[in-house]
Amino acid sequence: FFNSLTLWPNYLRDYHPFIQFAKEHRIPVLASNVPRKYANLVSSFGLEALFKVRSIFLPPKYLVRTFSQEDYETKIKNALKEHPGMNLSANAEKKFVDAQYLWDAGMADSIANAFLTKGRKVIHINGRFHSDEGFGVVYRLRKLGFKILSISMFPLKEDNIVPTEILKGCDFTVITERRKKEN
């Protein structure tokens, strides 16, 4: 099964234990990401290329840019600049931002649908960029009127200092002991 998927590099370490726990306890699991091929399509050709695609795995297309955030876009662009060789044109940056918005819109739409159709509380686990500082998925769900409790978890830095920037924008911050990376 795993060979047929393109998993995040940290999937087995950081996400799979949650899936196993849910499976063992018969807790429903919702895959909330849009398929990577659609995010890649947007980052390569722009959001307009997505309008030709029909898929049950995509959020309504009008939602992708509906909850845009200037500070979030700045954060995305700054993150891009931190990567060597990522000197992108303004047009390429816009495509990348729209791809990020697509990820967020897809997750928020999946969560909203699960809550509204099943009447269940949802625990959503995502990479921190999608929710830090109240951006991304958290922002979208709050704008839609959902009550969100945001918990961010971080391993302690090697110097045992907790950076203050990780403390803003979430309801709770959990700092864990840093484990040595397993090879």
Automatic annotation (TrEMBL):
Transmembrane segments: none annotated. The lineage of its organism: Bacteria, Pseudomonadati, Spirochaetota, Spirochaetia, Leptospirales. InterPro entries: Cofac_haem-bd_dom (IPR007314). Residues 6-141 form the Haem-binding uptake Tiki superfamily ChaN domain. This is PF04187 family protein. It comes from the Bacteria.
